[in-house]
Amino acid sequence: MWRALGLAVALCLVPAREAGAHGRLPSTTGLLLDPTEPAHLVLRATFGLLESRDHGATFGWVCPSALGYDGDKEDPALAFTSQGALAVGVFDGLTVAPDGACGFAFAEGELAGRYFIDFASSGADVVALSSNGVAADTFDVRLWRAGADGATFEAFGAPLPSDFLALSVELGPPKSRRILLSGRDGTSSGAMGTPSYAGVLFRSDDDGATWQRLALAGIDGVDEAALLGAISPADPERVYLRTQKKTDTERRDRLLVSDDGGATFAESFARDFALSSFALSPDGGAVAIGGEKAGIWLASAAALDFALASSLHVGCLAFGPAELYACTHEYIDGHALAVSRDQGATFEPLFSFASLCSAAECASDTRVGEVCPSLWPVEAGELSVKATCALPPPPPPPPIESCDCHGARGVGRPPAGSAGSGPLLGRAGSAPILALLVLAGVARRRRVA
Question: Per the structure, how many domains does the chain have?
Fold first, then answer.
């Protein structure tokens, strides 16, 4: 089986890095806040995950090999479950740490070997999206819901069309039972009868029991991808959608907004360079969007009156209960994470790579504690780490029971040394789908759920 989007991971456009242990310039690309522990943050970087248990005062390094992926090729999807487990979607499957940082193991059964590309959360509900290619122009797209233990996932929902290539998922407010998927399908034909892969949404208002196809007007061909940004927690009819278009001669990213549940959209913001970051405040009242060249733009959800708040070079945006966080460019801005505590009026540095403390504090019998400490000296040298700080002790490990929830096991094999090993495509696909997979690489720099 060859994996949908697998080629995109390898070919995704990323900045070059000077000679060293990695192929990418060190940068931060996502931030995750633990809903069960306010002091617990996980920062996604191009060289692994960075974990803090003291509101960002100190960070420890979680090496990519402990999670089973290659940091030079993937920006994995991340989500905390309602029980504080950390789920990471990589090319080789879904790896979960029930303790939130240390004890990673790949899920087995039906989840094994699936390519998990996105997560979405609403209240205590956390859903994972997998999208695998099974033949040329044929895909197996599935949804998985986190169980009550927060560490297992179970498949749910009616089957989706086999010509639908999913890119993102969002959940509406809990009582709405709404689920949206964005991507491309092959129902329309292009030149010589080949699928044109028009942009499309699939919407369910009964928790995935049935699906309605909604065409995305004006998003056609293989040059533009549609990625869901959010469904408003205050109104399930308000939907935010980012589009990313890149050709040899054009770059055009847009934010589209719908007030009828995705049936129609209107453009509310656009720039001729990448808008890689989007965030919606917890109450749905404020919107943030930005990119490395775009800076940070803020607006009220009611007026969509975007104004430039900062010229920081951002790789992610995330709202906390009373803060706005921004992944920033270490080598231009002088730090890798900044925070605003005054609704975007000012931003203050919170973290830089040189202040990393050490490998994450994990017991030696966990995957992270076993693998990462021996790799830390080389990583510290690459990042010119100068800090001498002590990390808070990790929490005690939770009780873990192996269960088979319709094939979704919470405890399984440890992650492989690198998800980048082995062939990316096990069989050849058609030329149109190869071009589509290259485009779909933009989806790997998704926001974390």
Answer: 1
